[in-house]
Amino acid sequence: MNGLSPWAVSASSELAESQMALYSKAAGSFEFKVYQTTDSIWIVANLPKGGRACFRAAFSPGANLAVKKSTQHSHGIHLELDSETGKQQVELTIDHQEINPVLRYTTRLKPKKDLLIPFWPRDIIMSSKNGHAENTAGKIHLSQEGTRTGMIYFSQTRPKSASILYLQNLTALADYCEQTQTSGANTVGGDWPEMGFALPPNTEQPLEAGKEIIINDAFIAFDAHSPEDQFATNHQFLNLLARIYLLLPRPETQYQQWPEILDKGLKDLIENPGCWSQVAGHKYFNAYVSDYNTPPEIMVQLAVLLPLLDYVEWSRTELEVMKTIKEGLPEFYDSKLGVITRWLPAAEDQLKGEEEQKMPGVMDSWYLHHPLLNLSRLALKGDKTAEKLFLNSLDFTIKVAHNFNYHWPVFYKMDTLEVLKAETAEGKGGEKDVAGLYAHVMLQAWELTKEKRYLNEAEKAANTLQEYGFDVFYQANNTAFASGALLRLYKITKNEVYLELSYQCLAAIFRNTQIWDCNYGYGKNFPKFFSLFPLNDAPYTAVYEEQEVFCALHDYLKHAEGIDILPSVKLLIAEYIRYLVDRAVYYYPAMLPKEMLEEKPKIGEVDPKLWIALEDLQDGWKKSGTVGQEVYGAGNAFGILPRHYLRIPGEPFLIYVDYPTSGYKAVKGKNIHFSTLGDERLSCRLMIVKTDSKRLPTFKLSIKGEKEPAQGRLTKDGNLEYCLNGNQQVSITWSHNNIV
Asked: Which of 21, 155, 710, 713 is least crowded, fewest Cβ atoms below 10 Å from its Cβ?
């Protein structure tokens, strides 16, 4: 038996007695009806096999809610309501063009008096066909954490009827949050059978009388199937999320001048003394600007070096700073233990233990594997020093994996392998996605050496990931690296389990995104749509993890070429990438108003004029840069440029596409060919960007399957802009005889 609130008891009782529906619509195996009760408008979804989901579209506590006007249209119904609280309008639409229908209801309120809202009931009650919510049962697969997407995903198990993904478009709540000075955080959740969205309580800042605002904008996708296992759950979640995403209002993106941004960031990275420390004759990057108290970390050095390498290979230039970084790397090797260490041994005595991991000889599990992954990337490109450091560290790394049976704790001692912190929180387990990161390292070792034992190690670690569902996510970049490793394992072994586990990692990543824009408070100064959180409980988004996930997802699509992966995966990855290329510039403090920057960060200092990214962007009511200005996030621009700008040797322009692309082929002075990835139902931007003061040549852009060339638009900067779609084959030719 389920306990119910008084609001749910009252609503269930009234709905059980409701006879006359204001509106009725069948959509596949679902039937939707709209009912009026004393204080609410309810949308009742009759589910297959006797299930029932009730959605409260309007509410006026303790008042007689009257329907003043009802207008049906081809896709739903529009209601105009009145009560002592104020006037409300409800717009209901049902999209049933695909097998899984999507219900949307948007509610607007115009208060009659200045209005405080100390409590608001959640807008979902699950029940059986006879209206008894207390006799039902279900499983909540996930719900909103902090300011992540306002969604809850669940399946009804008694009666076994259907699965539902509910997503509240929190972007639409900006006016409410601005007026009441409340946040969109933790507004969607609840326990069975009362779930969904509740307005954030407001006891101090009233809603203004006579000013209309949106108080609910819900999208609900239905699936008649209840998943039998975690793999089916992953598929269903990804598919339903993509289904809603196509209908969701999405903000426009802007073209950002990444070549110029990169030049500014490179100059500050090299020249600003706050980015560097010198120890025993070598220069090392600080983790944060002006953080001289923390000894150098190998992760920091390599996290900057590898994006620089991407940029150098793309631009065909040389950077002296890369030589400086490489010279210091061997100093991190501990010959006694036979492994690279996190902290520079020559400066480890600086550690004061102010944090759990800031102690000599203490390892955070993922910190061992991440540098090894980057060393392996260098080794595979022919760097002999990196190869030696990598190969010499593998036996110790395997020893650790065996000691922990492929279940890594949070912190342990390097010399004894004593566990110092086993779990992230009580009952939550350790760093679960490290098994996938370890598998990635072992695959790199196998590719480098062709020794079968490394491939065997990768499989043993990967198989442990079957124990987890969405909770596999510990840290975003590690989970993303794991997804790519699992896809590679599938390609090597043809074992379908690894493909399914790669989807599991991706589902966990998209669960931890913010698919809404925080347009209140400081949030009005920067876009936040489709951003990603670094940890499953982090209150902010972070540049370093986002940059690495961005690169890892590009690699995932590259490895997926020729494989029939889920269309929803292609869609969501491409859209995350597109929005990051727009958003990421706002991690630089120079792009933000000074008043929203933290004056006293936790580590080092924040220089508003420095083109070094902030670690953190916060919710709209909090200042950003609270952790510090992150030197190891400097790879931001160096990762974006090589992946989104196509170079044509000898030509005075670059081809920029904000979607991931593949199959790039160029014929000097003639034409280029490539394909956009993603979903053809969504659009992306192509820019032909000038690289000198001359006017552009004349271009012809053709898309396979379309008779007429695409038409471009000349921007005020003299660049040429086109609108493309995902999953298109593009050909561009140009002539210098006719100048644009």
From this structure: 713
Dihedral, CA of residue 632, residue 519, residue 258 and residue 683, to nearest 10: 120
pLDDT tens track for 284-334: 999 999 999 999 999 999 999 999 999 999 999 999 999 999 999 999 999
Provide the pLDDT confidence category of residue 736 given band limits of 50, 70 and 90: confident
Identify the bridge partners of residue 276 per DSSP, sorted by sequence position.
285
List, by residue range, all CATH 2.70.98 domains of the chain.
6-245
d(CA 331, CA 281): 11
Write the DSSP symbol of residue 711. Answer: P
Considering the chain, tell me which residue range(s) the CATH 1.50.10.20 domain(s) occupy: 361-503
How far is CA 183 from each of CA 42, 177, 512, 576, 595, rounded to the nearest angstrom? 26, 6, 17, 23, 19
624, 638 contact by CB (below 8 A): no
Instruction: Please name the residue that has the structure tokens 């080092």.
Output: 604
- Mean pLDDT, rounded, for 524-528: 97
User: pLDDT value at position 740?
Assistant: 53
Is the pTM of the predicted complex or chain greater than 0.70?
A: yes
Q: Which CATH architecture has domain 6-245?
A: Distorted Sandwich (2.70)
Contact 517, 511 (CB under 8 A): no
With 0-12 / 13-18 / 19 or more C-beta atoms within 10 angstroms meaning exposed / middle / buried, residue 249 is exposed
pLDDT of 669 strictly over 80 = no
What's the CA gap between 310 and 585, in Å, rounded? 19
Angle between helices 230-245 and 496-511 (to 10 degrees): 50
pLDDT band for position 739 (50/70/90)?
low
Per the listing, tokens 């395997």 go with 398
Q: Is 506 left (phi over 0), alpha (psi -120 to 50) or beta?
A: alpha
DSSP per residue, 637-701: HHHHHHHHEEE-TT-SEEEEESS-EEEEEEETTTEEEEEE-S-TTSEEEEEEEESSSSPPEEEEE
Domain limits, CATH 2.60.40, in the chain: 648-739
Of 139, 240, 141, 229, which is closest to residue 466 (Cα–Cα)? 229
CA-nearest of 411, 101, 61, 365 to 215 is: 61
Tell the burial category of 352 from Cβ atoms under 10 Å away from its Cβ (0-12, 13-18, 19+). Answer: exposed
CA distances from 146 to 7, 187, 254, 537 (A): 25, 8, 27, 7
**Residue whose C-alpha is closest to residue 351's, from 310, 294, 285:** 294
Q: CA separation (Å) from 349 to 103, 260, 279, 288, 290? A: 60, 40, 12, 19, 19
pLDDT digits (tens, 9 = 90+) for 591-614: 999 999 999 999 999 999 999 999
Whose structure tokens read 């698919």?
A: 515
Task: Give CATH for domain 361-503.
Answer: 1.50.10.20
Q: Does the structural domain 648-739 have CATH classification 2.40.50?
A: no
Q: Which pLDDT belongs to residue 1?
A: 57
Cα 541 from chain centroid? 9
| Packing angle of the helix pair 543-559, 298-315 (nearest 10 deg) | 50
